[in-house]
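@channel sequence for tomorrow's demo:
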Amino acid sequence: MSTLFRTKSVEQSIRDTEEPEHALRKSLSALDLTVFGVGVIIGTGIFVLTGKVAKETAGPATALAFVAAGIVCALAALCYAEFASTVPVAGSAYTFSYASLGELVAWIIGWDLVLEFALGTAVVAVGWSGYVRSLMDNIGWTMPEALSGPDVADGFGFDILAFALVLVLTVILVLGMKLSARVTTVVVAVKIAVVLIVIIAGLFFIEAANYKPFVPDAEPQPSGSGLDAPLVQLIFGYEPTNFGVMGIFTAASIVFFAFIGFDVVATAAEETKLPQRDMPRGILASLLICTLLYVAVSIVVTGMQHYSELSVSAPLADAFKAVGHPFYAGVISFGAAVGLTTVCLILLLGQTRVFFAMSRDGLLPRFFSKTHPRFGTPYRPTVLLGVIIAVVAGLTSINELATLVNIGTLFAFVVVALGVIVLRRTRPDLHRAFRTPWVPLIPVLSVAASVWLMLNLPAETWLRFGIWMVLGVVIYFVYGRRNSTMAKAAEADRAER
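structure tokens (generated this afternoon):
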């Protein structure tokens, strides 16, 4: 049993990054990390969820729901910032848990992140394809149904646009992190410009009457049944409400998912020039910027159009159409398509770095842990995963699996928060360039908030997540446990004795 919870010291993790064949090139600054964070966080959440939540759950108080969700993420971000500055190694929550909670837990969280980032990339690529097809339709170009994906085609369909996007981003990641950072900077600049256009232009069309009532009267939320029902309802009989004060917290559990992605910044710790200083800055700055933009957009949109009349599929664009300005609607659709490009890029980045870190530790074949001699990138797992995800995005209708991304992220939050508490006790001597304040209170609050949001996910999501985790544990006992570098080092020590 002791071998299952053997930890890999922080010092050893850092030494592994110095091996020439397995070392990533350091090229990122705090600004690059902030751009990465903003690039992956601002996506479908700001362009879609605002209208859905305002119309169905919180009304104009959606702005408060974004604040509440931002606070939950901030609790997790403080824990991520401490780990990322203390253990500046690729792998994010996987590496952090290996240093604090042990090998089995590290494998489980790594396996979880593989699912989260891979599925997230595919889902967003399919969403990007939909926006691009919509823009093409506006100018008279129509994609054949057979090349528009299974959601559109009558029969077999392959989403050629989603497939091509993932392959192009794979090439960019192979060519180097600095190129990826430059591409992301340009695209994020366009995306933020579009969001600011929404905020500034929308201010001129706000009507105070649309904010009344700011917190609509509470209404019972339609009850789910069987596996479709939230787990909290099946276990405790708790039934969430729409609108009212509790509706704000129900909305927060939904809009939380608009913040998913800031944790991906931590996967680039090893490629950061000054990780002890810049990782906390990048993580916290990107989260703060996105929270402010989300709140501002929700206030403007609910002021432009009464919450009961908002569109669910394209609230920002349709709000401008409602006030007689379709030009802005086109600009917003363009910004949404451009914005999702960076979301895909950075999720794919996170996926490959976790896979790389696990292979360097021997939990996956070491073949994937060698970096490119010229570009200094983990090209082998990048190419492998890029091709697999491109095919999945092209062939699969995966909207119903998107909640797996959410439960995977929240599970990672829980592990990282617990890891901060454990490492504070087991290694109080470590130098921490950034320290999470009020430990253990902040990590405990982070765990509690994350678990609560997980309980609000459908039982079916928990079942699928459980099946994936069981598969991961089987692979660990069949391959990883015997082939990990920690196991081989222990075997060598025994042989010497």
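heads up for whoever presents: The chain has 18 helices and two strands.
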